[in-house]
Structure formats: C-alpha cells, structure tokens
Amino acid sequence: MPKLAQKIGSLLFCPDCGTLLDLPQGDDTIVNCEQCGHEEPASSYENIEITTRSHPDAFPSALRQKGKTQTKIHEGGEALLKVTEKCPECGHMEAYSKEMQLRSADEGSTILYTCVECKHGWRVNN
Ligand SMILES: [Zn+2]
Ligand SMILES: [Zn+2]
Questions:
Q1: How far is CA 53 from the centre of its chain?
Q2: What is the per-residue pLDDT across 46-70, written as a single tens digit (0 to 9) for each?
Q3: Total Cβ atoms within 10 A of residue 74
Q4: What pLDDT, on a 0 to 100 scale, did the predictor assign at position 110?
Q5: Cα(116) to centroid(ligand 1), Å
Q6: 40 alpha carbon, closest ligand
Q7: C-alpha of residue 37 to centroid of ligand 1, in Å
Q8: 51 alpha carbon to ligand 2 midpoint, in Å?
Q9: Position 38 pLDDT exceeds 60
Q10: Binding residue per annotation — 73?
Q11: Span 71-101, pLDDT tens digits
C-alpha cells in the first residue's frame, strides 16, 4: 500500500518528508512532492473542501501539526522502539530496537539495536 498524504484541513502534507503538497493542476492525476518526489494521487484531493476564506488561524495550526509529525523517527517507514539495552561499544543503557522477521517463522527473529548515544548498531538473534 502506498502511503498517502496527511490531510490537515484543506491542506495535504507529504507522508515522507512533511512538505506541503501543491494542489493538482488541470488534469493532473499525480502531484509530486517538491522535496522528495513522493507521488500523491490527485484523488487524495477529492472530498477536500477548498475554502477560499478559511479561518484566519487554520494555517498556523496546520504548521504546528506538521512540526509534531516530523518528530517521528523514520527508518524504512517503521517507528523504532526505545529500549533499555547496554551498548557494547560505549556502555550507554538506551538503544533503539527493531525486530526483523526472517524468511520462515522457525528461524526466529533478529533484533537490531542502535545505540542512542553513539549510534553503534548491533544485532541479537532470538
Ligand atoms: Zn516529500
Ligand atoms: Zn553506544
């Protein structure tokens, strides 16, 4: 499933980088993100009321929302979990963890850790 833009009021934001997307022009079926080239189907713009006289505070609140969505940590589109795990490199006790499912269930899973402090990465097999 391709990711779709985030709708805030009558504005659409790129799901990848949070950039405000332009409205489709004329018969365009796709809108490209200027920042990262994300392709947003113009159909996302259906059902959006384009109000020429919106609330004066509509845009500032959209910007605040945008700030919030950008605090997420992106790595392959997945959110990383912060866990208590000792870094073998610097001894720091916090790391981001991410579980990788291997081909078959019998092979168990591998957990990838990334040290919060020094960004050292290591993996643990279950
Ligand atoms: Zn983008
Ligand atoms: Zn470390």
A1: 30
A2: 766 555 554 555 555 555 555 444 4
A3: 11
A4: 86
A5: 26
A6: 1
A7: 6
A8: 51
A9: yes
A10: no
A11: 444 445 556 789 999 999 999 999 999 887 7
Which spans in 70-108 are helix H? none
Instruction: Determine whether the annotation assigns residue 118 to a binding site.
Output: yes
Q: What is the pLDDT of residue 45?
A: 81
Give me the domains of the chain, ranges plus CATH numbers. 6-69 (no CATH), 81-125 (2.20.25.10)
Q: How far apart are the C-alpha atoms of 12 and 28, rounded to whole Å?
A: 16
Rounded CA separation 109/106 (Å) = 9
Q: How far is it, in rounded angstroms, from Cα 67 to Cα 51? A: 23
Find out whether 115 is annotated in a ligand binding site.
yes
Ligand number nearest to the C-alpha of 69: 1
| Ligand 2 centroid – CA 29 distance (Å) | 47
Amino acid identity of residue 97, one-letter, is: S
